[in-house]
Amino acid sequence: MKNVLKVLTTSVAAASLMTALLTGCNGKDTSPGASTAAAAAGTTAASKGAEPAKEVGFPKSLTYWVSLNPNVAATMKNYNEIAAYKEMEKITGTKVDFQHPPVGQELDQFNLMLASGKLPDVIEFGWAGAAKGPDSLIKDKQILRLNELIEQNAPNLSKVLAENPEFRKLVTTDEGNIYVMPFLLGDPILAVVNGPVLRKDWLDKLGLAVPKTLAEWETVLTAFRDKDPNGNGEKDEIPYLFSIADMDFNHLFVGAWGIGSDFYNDNGTIKYGPVEPQFKEFLATMAKWYKEGLIDQDYATTDGKLKDAKVTNNQLGALSAYPGSGISRYTSLTQVNTPGFKLVGAPYPGLQAGDKVMGQYTMPFTGIGAAITTSAKNPAEIVKWLDYKYGEEGHMLFNFGIEGESYKMENGYPKYTDLIMNNPDKLPVTQAMAKYFLASFNGPMVQDKRYIEQYFTMPEQREAQQVWSQADHSKEMPLVTLTADESSKTSSIMNDVKTYRDEMINKFIMGTEPIDNFDKFVDTIKGMGIDEAIKVRQAALDRFNQRQ
C-alpha cells in the first residue's frame, strides 16, 4: 500500500519532469490534448524491460453505463456535467455518452442489459453483485479480458499493479483474468468508514467514560435509559438503535464473540456466523437489552428518516454511523436546537478489556470498476482513455478537480477551496465535491487519502476513524469469485437463508421466539443448504489464496 501512495503523491515538479521524459521517449500522440494527456498516460514500462506498447489514440466517442451517484443527482443530470469529466474531454477529445439506470433499479437494469445483448462500450458496476462471475461473463463474450490490453495501453495502471502486488491479486480472477479498470483505495485510512458512536455530551453529563466492553456498554445504556441525559424530565431517551444492516456491515457487538453475522474467514476456514454456538450468546445479550429497554423498541421499522428524527430530536444515545453522513451531519443538524450536542466514536467492544474484535473494513478492491464489453470496436483506445485517471494528472483531476477552482496547492498539498468546503450555494460538502470530482464516491481510479483528510473537518471524525481502525480485520472476506455453477447452486440457498435469518434475528431479539429454540434455527438453516454454500466459498477462498 505504501508504494502506491509514493507514486501518486509526487510533487508537481517531479510529475512534470516525468511527463517530459515520457513524452521525449515515446514520441508524439496525434490525438487532441497530446501534450498533457499522452504524457500523463505514458505508453510503456520500458525501464522494467517491457516491450514497447503499440501506439493508439484516444477514442473519438464511447458509450458508458454507470449508476448515477445521489450526490451527483442532487445538482446534475449526468456525469458529463462533472468538472473532471468536462476537463478530460478537453484533454482527450473523447465525447462520452453516459447512460444512467433509474435510481433504485441499477441491478435489475444491469441484468436486463446483459440479457438483451445490447451493450454499451463500458459498464462501470459493483461486479460482486453480478449473478455470473467475471470469468463466466468473459467466456460468454459479454466483457473482455483486459490483461494484455492493460499491458499494452495502460502504463499508469500497470505501474500501480506492479508496485502493489496485493492490488493485482485482488483484481485478478481465479482464472487469471483482469476484467475491469478498478476502483482502488490508496491508503488504509480509506478502508474504515463506519463504527459505533455515542452522545459524548450525555456521557459527560452522567460522568461516564466511553465504553470499551459489553459490560460497560450495558452500564452506559442503562444510564441513558434511567438518568434523563437529555434533561427534559421525560423518559423518552432511546439508548441504542440496533440494525441488522449495520450489524452485517460493521460486526458491532456480534464481533465480540469472534464471529461475524455472515460468512467470515477464520484463519483460512470459511464459517457462517449465525450457525456458530457464539451467535446464540450474541442473540441472548441483544434480547436481554431489548427486554430491558436498552435497544430501540421500534428498531425493525426505523428507516433513515425516522433515525434522523430520533437523533435530531435529542432522543437517541448510540448508533452506528459514518464520519460524514453521521457525525458531521448530525452535529450540524442537531446543534441548532441542542447546542451541547456532541458525538464520539467508540472502540468495538469485546467481552473483556483489551479484546481486539472484528470491525468494519473495506478491502482495497471491492469489485467496483469499469469493464469493456465485446460491443466496443476500439477497446485499446478505451483502455488508454481509462488509464488517464491512474496517471498523476488524471489522479489529481479526479480526486481534487480543477486547480485554482476546487483546490489550490499549498506546500505541495492539494487543499480544497471554499467552493468545496464552504460552498457559496450552501451545498453540502459531498455535493460540492461531486460537482467537480469522483473522490467522494468511486470510479476507475485510485482514491487519494488527502481527500478524506480534508473531508473529515471535525476532530471527532478523525478521532472516530482512528479508534475504529484498531479493530481486528483479519477475518474479513476478500472478494472471492464464484464460478457460474457455484453461483447457480448457492444463490437461491443464500436468498432463502438470509430472509429466514433476518426474520429469526428479530424474533429472538424481540422475544417472540425463545432463545432455547436456537438449535432449531441452526437446523433449519442447515436444512436450507448452508453447508453447500460454505463449501463453495471455501473453494473460492482456496482459489483466491493460490492466486499469484
UniProtKB/TrEMBL annotation:
Query: This protein is called what?
Result: Extracellular solute-binding protein
Keywords in alphabetical order, please: Signal
PROSITE patterns found in the cross-reference section: PROKAR_LIPOPROTEIN (PS51257)
Q: Which Gene3D superfamilies match?
A: Periplasmic binding protein-like II
The record's listing under InterPro entries reads: Bact_solute-bd_prot1
Give the range the annotation lists for the signal sequence: 1-20
Q: Which organism is it from?
A: Cohnella hashimotonis
